[in-house]
Amino acid sequence: MKLKAILFMLPLVLGASFAQGQTLYKWIDADGNVSYHDQPPPSGSGYRVEAKSIRRSSRSGADDPASEAAEKYPVVLYSASNCVSCDSARAYLTKRKIPFKENNVEGNRELMDELKAKTGSVVVPTITVGDKVMKGYLESLLEGELDQAGYPKMQPTASGSEETGSGQ
């Protein structure tokens, strides 16, 4: 019971210092007893250590979901000039307000080599979401990958529809 009380209070006591973004150290002794600290154990102490980075608190509202997703799963669009599919992919990413980096491989041997090393070929558009690679552009596929990565979904327009047609 005493252990449960300590484990319950630990996050409350340490919470303020970890809200700024630090490392939490889990010390495990030879008997399997666990304790948590904001510093690693002294060298040669015999503890097994697990370290975990604690992110800054988003209580301020400054961290938006797109920024968090972009940090974990950055989006890169490999494109070329006069590429209609590249233009469509760029327009979709912009419309959905996805932060992305665009690399125009046209005439850039270094970027072509980078793309070939990542994907095995030089095809545009190629879109990477973290480690996932999409050759070509298919909106539904890109939408699914972005959703899975945690990017915010596109907000419906005031009319309630993304693409407005004749309404029939």
Within CATH, the superfamily of the largest domain carries the name Glutaredoxin
- Highest CATH level, the class of the largest domain: Alpha Beta
- Which structural class do you get from the secondary structure elements? alpha+beta
Secondary structure tally, helices: 5
Report helical residue fraction.
25-40%
Q: What's the CATH architecture of the largest domain?
A: 3-Layer(aba) Sandwich
Oligomer: single chain
| Cα distance spanning the termini | 65 Å
Rg, please?
23 Å
- Beta-strand residue fraction: 15-25%
Query: Please, what is the average pLDDT?
Result: 79
Q: Which of globular, elongated, flat, extended, rod-shaped describes the shape?
A: elongated
DSSP strand count: 7
The helix-strand sequence is HEEEHEHEHEEH
Give a quick account of the main beta sheet: strands, pairing sense, barrel closure.
Answer: 4 strands, mixed
Number of domains: 2
| CATH topology name of the largest domain | Glutaredoxin
Low-confidence stretches: 57-62, 163-168
| Major sheet: arrangement of strands | 5-4-6-7
